[in-house]
Structure formats: structure tokens, C-alpha cells
Amino acid sequence: MKTVAVVTKPSFIDAAMTTRVRGALLSDPRTRQCPIEVQAANGTVILSGQVSGAELALRAQQLALTVKGVDLVWTDLRWSEFSLIPKGPSVFSERKA
User: Fold this and answer.
1) pLDDT tens readout for residues 9-63
2) CATH code, domain with 80
3) Is residue 4 in a domain?
4) Into how many domains does the chain fold?
5) Does residue 62 belong to any structural domain of this protein?
6) For residue 28, what are the CA distances in angstroms to 9, 60, 67?
7) How far is CA 91 from CA 2, 4, 6, 64, 65, in A?
8) Phi and psi at residue 25, in whole multiples of 5°?
9) Is residue 34 domain-resident?
10) pLDDT confidence of residue 85
């Protein structure tokens, strides 16, 4: 059995979605100063980087979900404050239908 890997180039739609999510993060005074990387593919957005707390990670996730075309947000945002919220490898949210 052969395995074929398909490598796809980012589409114009994905690039536009990335730009719109970055714009949403930059327009919010709470997330503007956070170094958050954004990647988008087929309606899924991945947020990664460092934020100052769990509330900012959640806010970034919520902002990304407000962008038209975003169906799912994976976060790999890290924060250093002491928190009772367990830090798992990834957290995701889906847009409610």
C-alpha cells in the first residue's frame, strides 16, 4: 500500500482569513500588544504565542471566532501566571450553529 502526502499551498481565502483574524486581534485593546501568531486553513484557525493570562487567551479565541468563515479555533497560547485552570496541550472552540 502506498501512502501519498498532499502538500497544499495556502489559498487566497486562507490568507485573507489570516489577515482578518490578525486585524481583529489588533483592533482589540486587550490583545493588541500580545505576540499572537495566526494560521488559517479551510475554516480552521490556529493561534499560538504568549499572552499574559488565561483571560487574554480566551479573548483571542473569541475574537477569532467572530471572523466570517472561521469555523474552528485551535489555541496553543501560553501564559505564565499561576492559574487553577489546567493547561492542556491544546484547546479548541467551535462556532455554534
Assistant:
1) 668 889 999 999 999 999 999 999 899 999 999 999 999 998 988 999 999 999 9
2) 3.30.1340.30
3) no
4) 1
5) yes
6) 30, 9, 13
7) 33, 29, 26, 14, 14
8) -70, -35
9) yes
10) 46
User: Dihedral of the CA atoms 69, 9, 22, 93 (nearest 10)?
Assistant: 50
Within-domain flag for 6: no
CA 37, 19, 95, 27 torsion-angle sign: positive
Is-contact 28 67, C-beta < 8 A? no
| Residue 41, amino acid | A
Domain holding 27, by residue range, is: 12-94
Instruction: Give the pLDDT score at 48.
Output: 95
Predicted pLDDT of residue 11: 84
**C-alpha cell at position 56:** 487574554
Reported as a pLDDT band with limits 50, 70 and 90, residue 3 is low
